[in-house]
Specification:
Blueprint lengths: L3 H10 L4 E6 H12 L3 H4 L10 H11 L12 E4 L1 H21 L3 E4 L3 H17 L12 E6 L2 E10 L2 E6 L17 H12 L7 E5 H9 L4 E5 L4 H9 L4 E4 L10 H10 L5
Parallel strand pairs: 3-6, 3-7, 7-8, 8-9
Antiparallel strand pairs: 1-2, 4-5, 5-6
Length: 271
């Protein structure tokens, strides 16, 4: 078992919380773009409320613990580990509810090189608890707009976790994939599930467009988000994302293993 105190220490030591690698400049730029409804940062969410930069800064200060001083424009951003721990507890509670109901669950990540192992551990535990971990539309092609233009990706699953990889990439099933913020993959997955006669997920677990895209369509969604991902926290504030966990989403993949242990223990899913 991993105690709350031990996980707090790990969050700080691994820079998952406390001063993180995401810079203040990058976070503030994301808030400006979100206020302008730039799809690169809205991640498939269509906000119901009017959010200006100051509103977003206040929200992120409340949800993540970043400074609410607009005059602070440089240096590393900061995540309050207590907020991370509280959100992880809520995240675990949602997983426990899904396990108790035997809900069909979809896992998807736009950070496969970093977060695949975290989600795969949760998928294994939910599958063992009797949940159906969904894998529809495998191999489907998805055209996603990137800073390099429109690129074609293939949808794939590794250990029950959806991701996309470039069509020129390595063989399917390998633990590689592309970084993406797009909500298009989750839309393709849901369309594929519907075309096949279901079932549709009752819970989506992931990050970026996987969470916001699902939440926008009315499916319960929980996930992880960095200080430059305001969309998940806006979705949580507006009631379309159930839980957004503030942490650095791009540290070494091994640093997320204690979080898997902690969440599964809290969810009473430890194997």
């Amino acid at each position: 078992m991993l105690s709350t105190g031990a996980l707090r220490a790990h969050l700080l030591a691994a820079r998952l919380a406390g001063p993180v690698a995401t810079s203040r400049e990058v976070s503030l730029r994301s808030y400006r773009l979100f206020a302008a409804r730039d799809p690169r940062v809205t991640l498939g969410l269509d906000p119901e409320w009017a959010w200006n930069e100051q509103d977003l800064l206040g929200l992120m200060a409340d949800k993540c613990g970043v400074s609410n001083d607009p005059g602070q424009v440089s240096g590393p951003d900061v995540i309050d580990p207590e907020r991370t721990l509280s959100a992880l507890d809520a995240f675990a509670a949602r997983l426990r509810e899904a396990a108790e109901r035997g809900s069909p669950v979809l896992f998807g990540t736009g950070h496969p090189h970093r977060l695949l192992g975290f989600y795969a551990g949760l998928a294994d535990a939910l599958s063992a608890a009797g949940c159906l971990v969904l894998t529809p539309a495998q191999g489907r092609c998805i055209d996603i707009t990137t800073r390099f233009g429109v690129r074609t990706y293939n949808l794939d699953y590794v250990r029950g976790v959806a991701l996309v990889r470039e069509t020129s990439g390595v063989c399917a099933g390998r633990e590689t994939g592309a970084h993406t913020h797009s909500p298009l993959p989750v839309r393709v997955v849901l369309e594929g599930a519907a075309d096949a006669g279901g079932p549709l997920p009752e819970l989506v677990v992931g990050d970026h467009g996987w969470v916001c895209g699902a939440g926008q369509l009315g499916i319960e969604a929980i996930g992880l988000a960095d200080t430059d991902d305001p969309a998940l926290f806006v979705g949580e504030a507006e009631g379309r994302v159930s839980v957004a966990v503030p942490l650095d989403d791009a540290v070494r993949s091994a640093y997320y293993r204690p979080l898997t242990r902690y969440v599964l223990n809290r969810a009473c899913l430890s194997q």
